[in-house]
């Protein structure tokens, strides 16, 4: 018999709302990305806000302490850019001028060091490398043009560099009120559930963003010092590139390592094996010591899910999708875990109420109430 099923209607309505939300998010992806960067920047500076809040006189508004933190953060960024930016820019310009000649140089290829067991195959290996370089050199101009277009596009969007700290300032200022307003719309059960989810997400994002910042700073310091002491060409440029790529999980460090080896090899650096040894040792230290320590209470996603998320993020949003894939998966895991726990608690409470009702009926001699199915309490 045909009829209107309220449960099915709710499911259909929920699916429709989720699909509509995903579509709107994809449509305004640029705006969402700016908001995400503002949220991440908020988590970077919020520890300073908390520190100043502890010593802030009661007469001084909270807005003043937040503004003071942002002025201090912008001053720190400007100072660091002034100290290291000039040298990085100089090395980047010099590399861009010498790169075409380095790519066409056969001497650079023949100087590439090989392990002893691979020396008999040097001719074949170098022939393969030369063929790949010839193909890559032919594509250099189109890639350079694409890079130039990307730079011009970024320059036209410099307004986002202003919007990110402004939005971040407003988020920190309004976040407590926004949270209370959102929770006030819900009933008691959902309010408890989402309050726990928001708290977990707050811990997740704060740990993740600050860990990325510390990892990036540690990479820049380690690479710049080691590359300078080892005499690696373009040491500061390669260290800065590695620090920036540290924000892209998994793929970023691999790309930075490959770039360092390629640039050093084609620049005539004679100790590539020492360079490989340093990079491998640092990656082992970071991946198995520093990274787990910094993210001990933050992101907990299996390596398989990380790789699948990176591939999906690349297809959906390119570099931005890769950058956001890990925190998005961790956030979904938090929501699923909290929702599952709430569902199990509700079923356990229903089973307990049914058991108490049955015991009361036995004491009073009344017929037993209908029992819920056995699988619903599992």
Give a quick rundown of the structure.
The chain has 12 helices and no strands.
Number of helices: 12
- Percent in helix: over 70%
Distance between the termini: 32 Å
Structural class label: mainly alpha
Arithmetic mean pLDDT: 76
What does the radius of gyration come to? Answer: 28 Å
Oligomer: single chain
> Unreliable stretches, pLDDT < 50, 5 or more residues?
137-152
Globular, elongated, flat, extended or rod-shaped: what is the shape?
globular
Q: What would you say this structure looks like, in words?
A:
- The protein is mostly helical.
- The chain contains twelve helices and no strands.
- α8 runs antiparallel to α9, α8 runs antiparallel to α11 and α10 runs antiparallel to α11.
- The longest helix is centred in the C-terminal third of the chain and has 62 residues.
- About 4% of the residues have low confidence.
């Amino acid at each position: 018999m045909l009829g209107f099923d309220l449960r099915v209607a709710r499911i259909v309505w929920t699916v429709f709302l989720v699909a509509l939300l995903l579509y709107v998010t994809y449509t305004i992806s640029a705006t969402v990305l700016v908001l995400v960067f503002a949220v991440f920047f908020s988590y970077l500076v919020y520890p300073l806000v908390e520190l100043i809040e502890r010593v802030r006189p009661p007469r001084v508004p909270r807005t003043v302490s937040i503004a003071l933190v942002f002025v201090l953060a912008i001053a720190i960024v400007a100072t660091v850019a002034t100290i290291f930016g000039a040298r990085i820019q100089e090395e980047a310009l010099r590399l861009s001028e010498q790169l075409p000649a380095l790519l066409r140089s056969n001497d650079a290829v023949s100087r590439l060091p090989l392990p002893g067991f691979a020396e008999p195959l040097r001719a074949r290996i170098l022939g393969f490398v030369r063929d790949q370089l010839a193909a890559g050199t032919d594509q250099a101009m189109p890639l350079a043009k694409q890079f130039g277009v990307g730079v011009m596009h970024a320059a036209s969007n410099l307004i986002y560099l202003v919007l990110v700290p402004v939005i971040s300032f407003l988020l920190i200022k309004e976040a407590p009120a926004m949270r209370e307003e959102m929770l006030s719309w819900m009933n008691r059960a959902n309010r408890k559930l989402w309050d726990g989810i928001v708290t977990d997400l707050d811990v997740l994002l704060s740990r993740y963003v600050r860990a990325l910042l510390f990892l990036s700073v540690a990479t820049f310091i380690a690479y710049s010092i080691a590359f300078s002491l080892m005499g690696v060409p373009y040491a500061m440029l390669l260290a800065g590139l590695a620090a920036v790529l540290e924000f892209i999980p998994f793929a970023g460090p691999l790309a930075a390592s490959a770039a360092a080896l390629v640039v050093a090899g084609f620049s005539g650096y004679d100790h590539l094996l020492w360079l490989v040894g340093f990079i491998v040792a640092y990656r082992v230290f970071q991946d198995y010591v520093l990274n787990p320590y910094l993210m001990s209470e933050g992101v907990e996603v299996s390596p398989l899910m990380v790789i699948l998320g990176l591939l999906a993020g690349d297809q959906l949003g390119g570099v931005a999708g890769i950058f956001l894939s890990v925190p998005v998966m961790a956030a979904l895991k938090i929501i699923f875990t909290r929702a599952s726990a709430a569902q199990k608690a509700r079923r356990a409470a229903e089973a307990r109420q049914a058991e108490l009702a049955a015991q009361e009926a036995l004491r009073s001699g009344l017929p037993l109430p209908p029992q819920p199915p056995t699988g619903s309490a599992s």
